[in-house]
Specification:
A hairpin with a 5-residue loop joins strand 12 (about 330-335) and strand 13 (about 340-345). By secondary structure, this protein is of the alpha/beta class. The chain folds into two domains: about 10-40 and about 305-415, Aspartate Aminotransferase, domain 1; about 50-300, Aspartate Aminotransferase, domain 2 (3-Layer(aba) Sandwich). It has helices spanning about 15-25, 45-55, 70-85, 90-95, 100-110, 130-135, 165-170, 195-205, 245-250, 265-275, 280-300, 305-325, 345-350, 360-375, 405-420; strands at about 30, 95-100, 115-120, 140-145, 145, 155, 160, 175-180, 210-215, 240-245, 255-260, 330-335, 340-345, 375, 380, 395-400. Helix content is about 40%, strand content about 15%.
């Protein structure tokens, strides 16, 4: 065809690095520690709930309410209303979406207009930038700044901080939204109350909406506390809080997410939802509803899945940190999430000329080398930065530690061989 085929909103966002590095793991038969999903079953009660949804009430094979299966919106309103300190109405304050990814896309499409600016904190989950661009907005980036550590000291994501003056300088009359991710991907940072109060103050001062991605809220380690920014004074009316059943119940393939917020914002998300996906799979929603009802009865107790999964995941995190240190990698201890990012500066100094394109960031070349030569795959952290900043942060890679014990053992075997090669 002579006419231009693709819409201009697709320009520059057609390449997806996930496809490349997942294929790399497969091609090299490497241990895939890149992609963020559990490679073990969801809890038995969640699986049973899904089986019951498939084999029980035949009407669960049909459409349900467009904005969410009523038992699910009801339990989400009850469960999160207590956590947020709000009386949530299932029909007005809850929208069920095709995963948290769908929630984010719906939010950007509903609120971001041509020329609107969206503040994104780096490093950021990589879909925030293309979703802003597809809505016609302009991403504005502000970086978390790492504080140098003493020699031999284990680094932590608590050392990565926002500069209050720099953050304030990013707000203009064109700023429409700020995207917050806590606990964050890829860094694993859990924003403190003081940091959230800074963000909240600036959002209120400049009349800005906060899109708060909180999918890892149940995975917060070492006694740190997750705080939803919507629970702070003056923030409920300008915040969209996004969650994920996939992350909550280790069932990422179910693709059930949600948005919570004031009706003044939610009405616009419902407009996008009803004119795009319209409806999410009923049976998956029913399974999530029953799972939350079960969790609500056990919440905060030793029998709670959220409590048990957190404990198991923290053990996996600590296991991976020790293993990575053993070969000279320098992990940055995460406060939350599925991930640990690791400093590869020492390798960059020792092996600066790895194969690859001249303009290819070092972390991408390192992962290809590591996959081929060490049988391990991670994700380059430079993909979580804007183009001008990628070279500044191309000495980090991201590993996922929410993996089965057998996967972690396979990792250990690969690392043992690596250790043996490093010995004089």
């Amino acid at each position: 065809m002579a006419k231009r085929l693709q819409a201009r909103r697709l320009d520059g966002i057609d390449h997806n690095p996930w496809v490349e590095f997942i294929r790399q793991a497969s091609d090299d038969d490497a241990v895939n520690l890149g992609q963020g999903f559990p490679d073990f079953p969801p809890p038995a009660f969640a699986v049973e709930a899904f089986q019951h949804a498939v084999s029980g009430d035949f009407m669960l094979n049909q459409y349900t309410k467009a904005f969410g299966y009523p038992p699910l919106t009801k339990v989400l309103a009850s469960f999160f209303g207590k956590l947020l300190g709000q009386e949530l109405e299932p029909l007005k304050n809850v929208l069920v979406t095709v995963g948290a990814y769908g929630a984010l896309f719906t939010a950007f499409q509903a609120l971001v207009d041509e020329g609107d600016e969206v503040i994104i904190i780096e490093p950021f989950f990589d879909c925030y930038e293309p979703m802003t661009l597809m809505a016609g907005g302009r991403p504005v980036f502000v970086s978390l700044k790492p504080t140098p550590t003493q020699d031999g000291e284990l680094d932590s994501c608590t050392n990565w901080q926002l500069d209050p003056t720099e953050l304030a300088s990013k707000f203009t009359s064109r700023t429409k939204a700020l995207v917050l991710n806590t606990p964050s991907n890829p860094l694993g940072k859990v924003f403190s109350r003081a940091e959230l109060e800074l963000v909240a103050s600036l959002c209120q001062q400049h009349d800005v909406v906060c899109i708060s991605d909180e999918v890892y809220q149940w995975l917060v380690y070492d006694g740190y506390q997750h705080i939803s920014i919507a629970s702070l004074p003056g923030m409920w009316d300008r915040t969209l809080t996004i969650g994920s059943a996939g992350k909550a119940f280790s069932a990422t393939g179910w693709k059930v997410g949600w948005v919570l917020g004031p009706d003044s914002l939610m009405q616009h998300l419902r407009t996008v939802h009803q004119n795009s996906v319209f409806h999410c799979p009923t049976q998956a929603q029913a399974a999530v509803a029953w799972s939350f009802e079960r969790e609500q009865l056990h919440f905060g107790q030793p029998s709670s899945y959220f409590v048990q999964f957190l404990q198991a995941t923290q053990r996996s995190r600590d296991h991976m940190i020790r293993s990575l240190q053993s070969v000279g990698l320098r992990p940055i201890v995460p406060q939350g999430s599925y991930f640990v990012i690791t400093d590869i500066s020492d390798f960059k100094s020792k092996m600066p000329d790895l194969p690859g394109a001249v303009d290819e960031p070092y972390d991408r070349r390192f992962i290809k080398w590591m996959s081929k030569n060490k049988g391990l795959v991670a994700i380059p952290v430079s993909i979580f930065y804007s183009e001008p900043h990628r070279r500044l942060f191309d000495h980090y890679i991201r590993f996922c530690f929410v993996k089965d014990e057998s996967t972690l053992q396979a990792m250990d075997e690969k690392l043992q061989k690596w250790r043996d090669e490093l010995r004089p």
